[in-house]
Design goal:
homodimer, mainly alpha, two-stranded antiparallel sheet, 2 strands, about 5% strand, DNA-binding
Chain lengths: ~140, ~140
Amino acid sequence: MKLSTRTRYGVRAALELAANQSKGPVQIKTIAHRQDISIKYLEQLMAILKSAGLVRSIRGAKGGYILAKPANQIKLSDVFNALEGPVTTVECLENKNYCARVTDCVTRQVWAEVQQAIMSVLQSMTLQDLINRTKDKKTLNYQI
Amino acid sequence: MKLSTRTRYGVRAALELAANQSKGPVQIKTIAHRQDISIKYLEQLMAILKSAGLVRSIRGAKGGYILAKPANQIKLSDVFNALEGPVTTVECLENKNYCARVTDCVTRQVWAEVQQAIMSVLQSMTLQDLINRTKDKKTLNYQI
DNA sequence: AGTATTCCTACCTTATTAGTAGTATATTAT
DNA sequence: ATAATATACTACTAATAAGGTAGGAATACT
């Protein structure tokens, strides 16, 4: 049940944008450098966040990325969903036709509860909440 | 954040044993057949559960597997941990030396909360609880 | 025009998951 | 004893996904 680097990197990148909301677009290379992520890889992650409607891009010189909405309106679950896909611990939670026993399968219920537990945590936090948590606002202290 | 078949199969196998606790050992091939799992693959999963101390094996003819403890003393988190490894959403939760910023990293706190949420669900259920949940005790209704 | 940036798409490498195969070892029943 | 029935052990293989590279096209600012 490990988190993919995709999600971890993506959350960190989103936080970088959140921290710089007032200061205009942030370039991929800046984020990549600050967070120690491959530029080319991050490029792809940003594209995912963009198509999920969480960030907006500005092309060309002096371009970069900005959040598409205020940081207090972006829940961690939004970022998570975009990058990790829906938190579907098992196939049959998404696709009811996956298995005939769906209606009263005990293990399915368990995994559903696990999934719900994860989502409640992630839905309860916005990017802004996380920014507020950081003690030293200048240097965002996360690198996982 | 998908669950591996390893864990899914393992939980189902453990439930088969729980359901047959009073009736002596259950053979791998029986479980494999009932749960539609490859015999050879399940063999390996049972070995993992065994080395985790959750089941005991009886070799030779009329042998098979039984739970090492009463079903109400085996938490789902035990089975999960054995098969999936500790629910470590990120490396630094296990290994504090993994990253220098550990002490006040915001994202680490988030993943820790997620991890805690998952564990509380799994720790709150025993195999017996799940058996009790099944409506029709004869045919264990799970196949995910 | 020139430079800086995102955009797009294809590729590659490595790790993990899921599964197979074969043989050795232990236990029971005959 | 011997045959039959189980697990135990170890190695191999195939498929998939994760993580990352590469190159150039499109766009926008100066």
